[in-house]
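Collaborator request log, item 7. Partner lab (contact: R.S.) asked for a structural prediction of Angiotensin II receptor-associated protein to inform their binding assays.
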Amino acid sequence: MEIPAINLKAIVLAHWLLTVWGSMVWLPPSYSWGNFSVLAVGVWAIAQRDSVDAVLMFLMGMAVTILTDVIHFGIFYPMMEFAGERRFTAGMAILNLLLKPISCFFVYQMYRERGGDYNVNFGFPSVSRNRDAYQSIDQQDESSSPTNPFNQAQDSKPGVRTY
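Returned to partner:
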């Protein structure tokens, strides 16, 4: 099953519209600042079509705003009944939050298409999958022979190893 290609412009436009509608009445300015800042990085990713960094920063920003949106809703979602415009803005903000993981999936696919690698290096030693340095055990070195399997010099003393 092939993943459908979603345009980055459509993702940014949809989230911009939902953020505008979601921040009209009851959410604090930090909700708007956080989401519009990430959308500005999305515009940067649109403008530089070959930039892996722009798409990665947009992806990470979307992931962070998922967490911050949940915190905003947990703190500022009132327990009282909503009037018409508050119900609309709450619905649009919640719809924006629900669409973000799907958008992150498509942005991750764009990141991979632009040549991004999914390996993240935090500076810790890790096991590499590069098998170029390995030597096959089926092939023997030309310097070793069946009569001298450990590559020791013939005239050396038996207790002294030469390396």
